[in-house]
Amino acid sequence: MKVSAEVTIGNGTYDDWLKFFKSYEEERGQFVTNEVIEKTSENSALVTFEIVNLDGLTELSSRADILETEKSMQIITAIK
């Protein structure tokens, strides 16, 4: 399933978010393929990818450390 996610960073910059996002890239790669990250502004990005394991991606995205960082950075993700 191909997905696009619009990411808005309320507390930080695109570069801050990218560093965080790349910190779990290897793990995410077990669940998605063909990931493309596009900077759309200093506080937003567009990420497109194909989900190959939805349950695994959901579990990863629900991990406490990831949720905590997303909350502190005020990250809002809208799936398109």
How would you explain this protein's 3D organization?
This protein has 80 residues and is an alpha+beta fold. The chain is built from four helices and four strands. The protein has a four-stranded antiparallel sheet. The mean pLDDT is 98.
Secondary structure layout:
Elements: E1 2-9, H1 14-22, H2 25-28, E2 32-41, E3 44-51, H3 54-61, H4 64-72, E4 75-79
Antiparallel strand pairs: 1-3, 1-4, 2-3
Quick tags:
about 80 residues, alpha+beta, globular
The order of strands across the largest sheet is 2-3-1-4
CATH architecture descriptor name: 2-Layer Sandwich
Kindly estimate the percentage of residues that lie in beta strands according to DSSP: 35-45%
Could you name the ranges where pLDDT drops below 50 across 5 or more consecutive residues? none
Relevant CATH superfamily = EIF_2_alpha
Cα gyration radius (Å): 12 Å
The number of distinct structural domains comes to: 1
Give average pLDDT, whole number.
98
Number of helices: 4
Compact summary:
The chain is an alpha+beta fold. Helices cover 38% and strands 39% of the residues.
